[in-house]
């Protein structure tokens, strides 16, 4: 079934807002099917940032 998904899925850039442990599992799964992930959180070194293609640290206190 994974091969079928790979053949029919276009490569997308996904911005993941919130990069905790669950986000890390999402990044791993999305990268398996060829997606590019940018992880965003309020602190550097968040779990999903460790496996994402890129990351950004933002100040969420003003949002």
UniProtKB/TrEMBL annotation:
One of its GO terms (cellular component) is cytosol. InterPro entries: PreATP-grasp_dom_sf, PurT/PurK_preATP-grasp. Residues 12-54 form the PurT/PurK-like preATP-grasp domain. Keywords: ATP-binding, Ligase, Nucleotide-binding. One of its GO terms (molecular function) is ligase activity. It comes from the Bacteria. The keyword Nucleotide-binding applies. This is PurT/PurK-like preATP-grasp domain-containing protein. It comes from Flavobacterium cyanobacteriorum.
């Amino acid at each position: 079934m994974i091969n079928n998904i790979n053949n029919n899925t276009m490569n997308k850039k996904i911005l993941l807002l919130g990069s905790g442990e669950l986000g890390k599992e999402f990044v791993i799964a999305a990268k398996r099917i060829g997606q590019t992930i940018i992880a965003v959180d309020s602190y550097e070194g968040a779990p999903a940032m460790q496996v994402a293609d890129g990351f950004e640290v933002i100040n969420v206190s003003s949002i």
